[in-house]
């Protein structure tokens, strides 16, 4: 009888703890106000974005064909013909005019360990006069409209000329995924070189997700058991062998 009474009291106590407090309502109200303020302040940013796009040139390039890039510090995006899963785009900005040439290497080096190439080719980027002092230089990869492949974890690799192997993260910045455009974009130290896009192996990615989920579930169960044991202890009722 004592154990049943203790369990009832513990359940009632947990129910009371689960009820929303007045402070929670106030916090939600504050969050709503902050969100409204954030929306209000995005109007100037949107105008700045439109101005930036107006100062931007979009070109269509072809592999093995020279592309004339104008100077004037105007951002120029050159999009190349799509491959199996996506298309390469080269972003350049500089005060001086440049000549860009991109060719496909149809027999590229193997993908780094733990990665799979997004395309069966790599891209060799050349530029007359080199790439020193460019204002902006990026390698982008845009998923084809008819593709359902998840490229959000994609990364850019650069070919190491000494070892003849692709290295992820060497001489390149962090690859970001822009969901609205289904695009991977990566700043590079020197756009002259050979590049390829890679995805982490599916088995490794799945294993990591499963491990993370298991750790979260285990932590949640342990916390619940501890709370129940503490409540029963305060009521003078043991979790096992109680009368």
Automatic annotation (TrEMBL):
It comes from the Eukaryota. Residues 1-18 form the signal peptide. Residues 21-54 are annotated as: Disordered. It comes from Coniochaeta ligniaria NRRL 30616. Keywords: Signal. Residues 27-47 have a biased composition (Low complexity). This is Cell wall protein.
